[in-house]
Amino acid sequence: MTSSSLRDSNNSDKSTNNSAVIEDTVYKYLAGSRVSYDKGKPRVGYNPFSKGISLDWVAFLSQQRDLDTLIEDQLKEKKMAKLREQQSYMQERRIQMGGELVMARFVVYLEGKVKLYGDDHWYCRETERIKSLPLEKTPGLTVEAADLTDSMLIYEGLENLFQAQSILHLGLSQSSHLDEWGISRLAMIPSLVSLDLSHNSYITERCLIPLQFLPNLQKLNITGIKYFTDQPLALTFLEELLPNCVITADNDILKTDH
């Protein structure tokens, strides 16, 4: 037998022994007492739960759940840190491209689509037209509409959207990573005429209050919002905040045009 084969054989034996030890320990914990074993398994017909689960085993399970939660939280934070890095606003890009193009390129980067004034077509990754979207500052280039439905947009990425000074239409439906603080910052885009916030997980009545500072807003879609404390009351409240806006909600509870 070669040294490589011997090493593989030893590693395999160690792995088998470790598995047997773990299995044996688990069965002992479950049994709560000493039992006889046959190759790491309890006797046929033996019920390992017959004497209940020991307190040690309960503690072990509790620790395991805590460990799983910790690992899950760490993975989420790592993912969010990467998104923050990818979506952070960079002044250097604005100098090179201009604000409007920064916004347009950012939307396309997030797999959204963008429409420019004077152009009837949308730019997105899936179309050949994306190749014609400039890479450097272009006089006269202005964003008219952007659709970020089901995107990975987060709070830190909003600064890129604020660079478009004349955008009229913005779609943020199903933006599962955008929290209520992010929604409230949309008041910093005063040119908006229509805004789609439908089917967003974190929207509450409170985060919609700043939308009253959008003087040109004419259409607001909040269909599929789950976390209104009292939807009819919330919609009445919105009607007072946005008297010149058509508000679309579930079951057509409120569609008012003044």
Concise account of the structure shown:
The chain has 258 residues and is of the alpha/beta class.
Find the structural class using helix and strand composition. Answer: alpha/beta
Oligomer: single chain
Number of helices, where a helix is a run of at least 4 consecutive DSSP H or I residues: 8
How many whole angstroms does the radius of gyration measure? 29 Å
Order of helices and strands: HEEHHHEEEHEHEHEHE
- The shape is globular
- Report how far the terminal alpha carbons are from each other: 89 Å
* Total beta strands: 9
Roughly what is the average pLDDT, rounded to an integer?
Answer: 76
What share of residues are in beta strands?
5-15%
Which regions have little confidence, pLDDT < 50, spanning 5+ residues?
2-7, 28-49, 253-258
Major sheet summary line: 7 strands, mixed
Helix content: 40-55%
Strand order of the largest sheet: 4-3-5-6-7-8-9
Q: What are its keywords?
A:
single chain; alpha/beta; seven-stranded mixed β-sheet; disordered C terminus
Structural summary, described in words:
This protein is of the alpha/beta class. Helices cover 40% and strands 10% of the residues. It contains 8 helices and 9 strands. A 7-stranded mixed β-sheet has the order 4-3-5-6-7-8-9, covered by helices on one side. The longest helix has 33 residues, at 55-87. Residues 2-7, 28-49 and 253-258 have low confidence and may be disordered.
